[in-house]
Amino acid sequence: MGRGGTLKVWSDELSSDKMTMTERENAQEFGYAAASNCFALLFSCSYLPLSSHQQLNGRPCLQLYMHLQRDMGSKGYLPLFEAKTAKGRTLYRVWAASVFLAICLIWAYRVSHAPSQGEDGRLVWLGLLAAELWFGFYWFLTQAHRWNLVFRQTFKDRLSLRYGNELPGVDVFVCTADPTIEPPMMVVNTVLSVMAYDYPPEKLSVYLSDDAGSCLTFYALMEASEFAKYWIPFCKKFNVEPRSPAAYLDSISVSHDPNQPKELTIMKELYSDMKNRVENVAKLGRLPEEVHLRHKGFSQWDSYSSANDHDTILQILIDEKDPDAKDSEGCVLPTLVYLAREKRPHCLHHFKAGAMNALIRVSSAVSNGPIILNVDCDMYSNNSLAVRDALCFFMDEKKGHEIAYVQFPQNFDNITKNDLYGSSMRVVSQVEFHGLDGYGGPLYVGTGCFHRRDILCGRKFSRESDNEFRVAKDREREETADVLQEKSKVLATCAHENNTEWGKEMGLKYGCPVEDVITGLSIQCKGWKSVYFNPERKAFLGVAPTTLAQILVQHKRWSEGDFQILLSKYSPAWFANGKISLGLQLGYCCYCFWASNCLAVLYYSLVPSLYLLSGIPLFPELPSPWFLPFAYVVISKYTYSLGEFLWSGGTILGWWNEQRIWLYKRTSSYLLAFIDTIAKSLGLNSDTAFVITAKVSKQEVFNRYAREVMEFGDSSPMFTTLATIALVNLVCLAGSVKSAIIGRIYETMPLQFLLCVILVLINWPLYQGLFFRNDSGKMPSSIAIKSIVLAVSACDYNHAEERRETWKKKKNPEEKRKIKMKVGSLEFVAVILVAFLCTPTAVVGIRFVIDREECFSHDVKYEGDTIHVSFVVIKADSSWHNSHEGVDLVVKGPSGDQIQDYQDKISEKFEFVAHQKGVHRFCFSNKSPYYETVDFDVHESHFSYYDQHAKDEHFDPLLEQISKLEEALYNVQFEQHWLEAQTERQAIVNEAMSRRAVHKAFYESAALIGASVLQVYLLRRLFERKLGMSRV
């Protein structure tokens, strides 16, 4: 009998009895909360017999519970959740109205002071008007996120009292797509964290979708299925949080409590063993034969061709119907399933949306849980009660039938103190989504979301229906797991979706890089509501990007997908009109217009600074009354923004970093997303790519990220845009300093000057990457040089017409000569910047100590590049070892073919042409019994301008010569570095020889002294003996 049935028996048995006055007083004394806690405990222990009377301070819980039930009956319905509106809404709305009035005054100024037809600067003025109209419109859209904030609270104790163990089945989907970007150990930690939910294991099923079809990921999951037999009981026994093994064990690694339970020590050893096995196989890149024979599931890779060409691979690793599927305590384990759907080169696979739809179909045949949770492979569970929080919304008797999905926020566990790249999206999760919740629910963001299965599969909404959410009984099935998985494989084939509604009316929508947003919008447009729940203990924690390139690429994909939605038939501007509330419609439009922001921000980042350099004012002067609305909007908007960020848990420096990333995203990510979307709409670009954000980074990159040093090491077109804008503002500020000192520019152009100063200050990390850093995270020289040329050209072009007209008006040759000298001033600035950029810096190689073998990898990005390699054995850790100091080096290409092989070399310098792009491996071997210190350097020669799509024929010859000069300079530095390493080795050898000579002299002297002493002693003994004999 289930807990609900037990509760009914208790209720029936006690309904005929009447509580005495004493019993009622006792119940009131301890309160209803005590009764709730008592019965929550009862229901959490399924093994309690019917006759058990759990005591609370000496009083029977059954009597307290009976009193509670009677009181509930008298008062009526008790909800499983509540929603509270934010305080201070009236004050905020008054402030917002004042800001809007000031914005209208700014528009009025632009219109009333616009140059007349034919006057100079009219087009520039109209451009500023258009930019400010856009800023005002977009600010109005953002008010939908702040106008009606709602915060929710759940009552999990009521859920336990009301339903006990009669809870619905939950299917958890974990998606991964690349074992190199998303390492298997990270994936299985996420899987283990959701397997250990505080939830009946027989009602929990976990599915891993591996879109790469990697046997390495399957092997890691197989190892995790064995580790789960010990990890899940451990979590429940000690109430572990978080339940990701890596996160939990790392959190207690600094603790040295001698009273730690022995189970913890055992768990650390088990996890370490599993981690070593998985990482060793991943490093090897293939499965050893003995591993391949351990599980029959590996036989499904016999027909495997590639990640994009293979059959369906389906394996039920743990089947809760299997009587042998028990943990170490003898309890049932959650179902665990591995799926790699069929892929063929000629078939569209629709990226993550296709993987999710395949999981929906396969899970319906295996477990068919009414609730579906999907998480990204890096987003582990940080709160084991999150599933019960979600059920409080779905199972509420009065409002639960309206709710289609419950969205939890995205949070990250690797955010730096001041959030260097703004990855936490703090204001979005703490403010904006709460605002959307007040208008009918947030967006579906693709991870950390609980869905109703039937609604994802196309169920229609009916306002008249009651809460039809019912707990499905366990289905009886006769077939074994092997038979079931063979029958279910057809559900994940390429042909299964042909001529069906999958991707249209069923499952996640196809045809958009942000399939999650468009799916959530279509669900809400059918009449369903969604809920945003942000608990105090974060439900999920993931991995945030650790480089600037990663965050910009991620936002390009998001903004491009949202902009595509805006231009599609599912646009919230017309598709959602009348189907969802106006506030929610504006909230969706706010995100869909992300990419469109690029034009206005780009205009404001360049034009006012360029005209500051020319001395032409574009804003009101300081004494003018029109200056006040500009000042009020700027001060109040950014003061509120800072206060909002601090209220969300950020820091002042974190807010400053957020403003920097705000600028960088709008002038790079959003710009490219806007261009690509428009090109695709015009039929100029038909490719749709889903770029996976890297979840791992090199150790040196991570170290810089931990120190909050911005990473520019990768070559990206977005960096060219950012560097050019930064240098334009730097040149304009430098050119206007004299005017600021002499010409009282702070009165005539205060806003322009302030804007230029802020843009220079906010770009300080970029200037450091261009000119002041020598590490591998600095800005690539090719990008820096191109940016300097473009920036100076832009500034020079802005002056060209004005200088030409001034030169024509001058009669005096001396005055004309002075103007010509002015013409070359910007070119002189360019030469200074290039010279400063090209100042030789030390080439820093890799220096490491080798015991037996060390391998390094270098990603060659272009086929046909020349790779320069050098290494020097600096020293061996033995003063007397004089032979076999050399090391072996083997160089292998991306396909594993051997390119170079050197044996017993103390130093070597060579080069080769890469016939394939990809990761090249450099493996050193040490045959000597001593540690050796090796200095290693590798450099890839490539003229990057050949691969840029946007080329200017006027600059190509210059860029070619600059690239050749850059390569020549590096070759000199490369040779210098090799010679320095050789010199250092020779110095160490000379020092060692000198030291050995001194030691040798010392030992020879000691031996000579010892021999002399011995000789004296022996002679003395001899004479003494002879003297004794002669006396006799």
UniProtKB/TrEMBL annotation:
The GOLD domain, residue ranges: 853-940
Membrane topology: Multi-pass membrane protein
Ranges annotated as spanning the membrane: 91-111, 123-141, 717-737, 749-772, 826-850, 1001-1019
Keyword annotations: Cell wall biogenesis/degradation, Glycosyltransferase, Membrane, Transferase, Transmembrane, Transmembrane helix
Compartment list: Endomembrane system
Signal peptide: none
UniProt cross-references to Pfam families, sorted A to Z: Cellulose_synt, EMP24_GP25L
Nucleus keyword on record: no
The keyword Transmembrane helix belongs to this UniProt entry's keyword annotation: yes
Protein name from the UniProt record: GOLD domain-containing protein
Source organism (scientific name): Hibiscus sabdariffa (roselle)
